[in-house]
Amino acid sequence: MKYCLIILHIVLLTGVSQAQNINVEKVFRRAGAQVSVMLDEVTNADTAGKVKLVSPRTYENGQLKMVQSRDWTSGFFPGILWYLYEYTKDDKWLSEAGKFTTKIEPEKTNTRTHDLGFMIGCSFGNGYRLTGRKDYEKVLIEAAQSLSKRFNPVTGVIKSWDHNSDKWQYPVIIDNMMNLELLFEATRLTGDSSFYKIAVSHANVTMKNHFRADYSSYHVVDYDPAIGSVKKKMTHQGYSDESAWARGQGWALYGYTMCYRETKNKAYLRQAENIAAFILKNKNLPRDMVPYWDFNDPAIPNVPRDVSAAAVISSALYELSAYSVNGADYKKMADQMLKSLSERYISKPGSNKGFILDHSTGHKPAGSEIDVPLIYADYYYLEALLRYKTYRQPK
Ligand code: GLY
């Protein structure tokens, strides 16, 4: 009887049935084997051209695509190596993570994009968190200074892109929420609250202008930088201007959850809960919890999935579940997503040039990276697994 009560207590505490359990040890072993394949592939890749290629991004049309450090995805591979080190404590991963992190350093002075949080946060940020290295700390601060230069107090937001100036004047994309984490970190490291103030302003203005009544997010909002007003709301990577591009909803959910962690402002928590409701109660979310690439593509169900969106959403839900009264539900949904990814979307051992997951969609309207492995799907998948492993029921 006492034994039964203990089991019941464990089930109630964890909030999951046995069926949702994930064998993290096994999944990480498999991921490590894949990443070892990738390390060989990356080492053998033809990077002899004039342009310095530093990180893998995707495997498309039979080619491993490597990118320069200035590509928005350059930090994810070092980040994956840091997560493997975090889980295994194996010095092999520490050494590789350090090597690939260093390659991203030139971007600390890049003021031509908002993507510094992805590039520097995932590489140097994780490296600093796990090693406390002072040289990494300096890079993080310099990168935050560079990112801050893209903030305009008239609009109250950071400008995302400098390209395609024929289409927009001061574009801000929902993805930009992810880069605020670097600014919060910089305030912690320096005691200088200007980074924090920029992050909060960006989050507030984005909350006002980027969302529809159902809490789905536009992809791009274009501002008039002279007077700060909104000129246009549109998409770049989604199905249409009024559709809900799946990964964008993931960036929004993750971004506001992180902003709540950093500020404890309840408005961000409510925003994250509302975004979660849009995603999780959506009639177009498949039973296996891996979204189609856009929630509003009229050709659903005959359209590609986006595994990267599921990876971002599951990681965000684990964090949100620790803050929200709906936490048990979020945890259950995140477990289902992670289980689906681990069982149905995982690459066959040794295949896909070492990418861990398959079936992501990068930029469907441009006809590129459709139903392929993407490095950021692998990054957020490992992050979600670590969050699953260390998950503690909120007090
Ligand atoms: N941040 C670019 C993307 O999500 O595709």
Automatic annotation (TrEMBL):
Active site: 115 (nucleophile), 175 (proton donor)
Family the UniProt entry places it in: Belongs to the glycosyl hydrolase 88 family.
GO terms for biological process, alphabetical: polysaccharide catabolic process
Residues that coordinate or bind substrate: 115, 175, 235, 247, 251
Protein name: Glucuronyl hydrolase
GO MF annotation list: chondroitin hydrolase activity
Keywords: Hydrolase, Signal
Source organism of the structure: Arcticibacter tournemirensis
Residues of the signal peptide: 1-19
Pfam annotation, one family: Glyco_hydro_88
Lineage: superkingdom: Bacteria
